[in-house]
Amino acid sequence: xxxxxxxxxxxxxxxxxxxxxxxxxxxxxxxxxxxxxxxxxxxxxxxxxxxxxxxxxxxxxxxxxxxxxxxxxxxxxxxxxxxxxxxxxxxxxxxxxxxxxxxxxxxxxxxxxxxxxxxxxxxxxxxxxxxxxxxxxxxxxxxxxxxxxxxxxxxxxxxxxxxxxxxxxxxxxxxxxxxxxxxxxxxxxxxxxxxxxxxxxxxxxxxxxxxxxxxxxxxxxxxxxxxxxxxxxxxxxxxxxxxxxxxxxxxxxxxxxxxxxxxxxxxxxxxxxxxxxxxxxxxxxxxxxxxxxxxxxxxxxxxxxxxxxxxxxxxxxxxxxxxxxxxxx
Length: 329
Fold this sequence. Notes:
Elements: E1 8-12, H1 16-33, E2 37-41, H2 45-48, H3 54-57, H4 65-72, E3 78-82, E4 94-99, E5 107-111, H5 114-120, H6 128-134, E6 137-141, H7 144-153, E7 157-161, H8 166-174, E8 180-184, H9 185-190, E9 198-201, E10 216-221, H10 227-230, H11 236-251, E11 260-267, E12 270-278, E13 284-292, H12 297-310, H13 313-320
Parallel strand pairs: 1-2, 1-3, 6-7, 6-8
Antiparallel strand pairs: 3-10, 4-10, 5-8, 5-9, 11-12, 12-13
Helix pairs in contact: 5-6, 11-12
């Protein structure tokens, strides 16, 4: 396989977490493919607009638009993304050239108040009972899924809507903007540790993670010659899980206006996909569906939709003001 004659240019956002991800890919390209690379830091629309929420200004694509433009214009060869930031269906001009091994997929509650932390510490993974025992406190999140799950768990929790990069949020938590903050476990694993804070895993059987949370993906143009090299970085288990989760997301017609958690646990031989769709009034539709190796993503998504419909999905969509039945993209 012929190596590219030029240094590979990696387009990335400029946050601490995004740069960690890009440097990680740099290391893999050199170690596994013998490719040298450089970073091109891109400021996306999602980074520039910090006073409004994604569900108000156009959705997940706001974190990738400028990176994809850099690929189209030849300024970059690849882009590195947290896969949960990508829409369920991407423009066919682009390809996901490699799914990296999945990191921690769950969510964590980070607490700054020692008294609240002491109340939570008597439990294992934190669920509704632990949150009710913790009493009244404020929790920051910009996610509709996280907001609705927290509101469902305890009437004493005040959920404060926030935006900003993870490191910015952690700093504001330290400064006392809120008493708690919900972030992806993978993000904390990839960032430098922060002192003076207490971290608790939220029970994933209740707090169903966002689709593809913890998975990094490398995007490139479909016709780019670098695609041939990216296969060396691809993790088949991560790809299978991501394609199942994104298939369900697409079948639900979902974007960031839909508070939904979708999580596949298993390997290439099979496993389970858990799905939870939530409304602000506390109503929800949940299912846990077994997956076998021969099942296609389309078959899995269709069966999950049928099961969700049997468990109140129409009511949830009505509460959310969304058309029902959902129109898959």
